[in-house]
Write a structure and sequence with these properties.
Blueprint lengths: L2 E5 L3 H12 L4 E5 L2 H11 L3 E5 L7 H10 L5 E6 L8 H7 L4 E4 L4 H12 L1
Parallel strand pairs: 1-2, 1-3, 3-4, 4-5
């Protein structure tokens, strides 16, 4: 069974996405911060990480940098509430190997399409 790690500092976003994917037979684990995600990565060994960019503590871009510094090549899809082109974060995430972007508010069709494509 594929495993998905959802990283977002908003509880409602984590629960919404987790419940959605659990109903699709995907094993889901959640982290409320970049720090927590980094702790969980080795232990949980997810196939895919949904990583929010704007979080308190270390943001999603820094979290992605630290994942790569550890030599972990897990698939990562970034989640953002803003246009990623606005501040150069899109290119930075691409350079770090992020596969795609999902925009908030989350649309189930987009979320499902991107995640299921990457978990296949």
């Amino acid at each position: 069974m594929p495993k998905l790690l959802i990283v977002d500092d908003e509880l409602d976003v984590r629960e919404f996405a987790a419940n959605f994917f659990k109903r699709r037979n995907i094993d889901v684990v959640v982290a409320s911060s970049g720090e927590k995600a980094l702790e969980m990565l080795d232990k949980e060994n997810p196939n895919l990480v949904l990583l929010d960019i704007k979080m308190t503590g270390i943001d999603g871009i820094t979290t992605l940098e630290r994942i790569r510094q550890k030599g972990n090549q897990v698939k990562v899809v970034m989640v953002t509430g803003q246009e990623p082109q606005d501040d150069g974060s899109f290119n930075k995430c691409k350079d770090l190997g992020a596969l795609d972007y999902i925009h908030k508010p989350l649309k189930l069709e987009e979320l499902e399409k991107v995640v299921l494509r990457e978990l296949k």
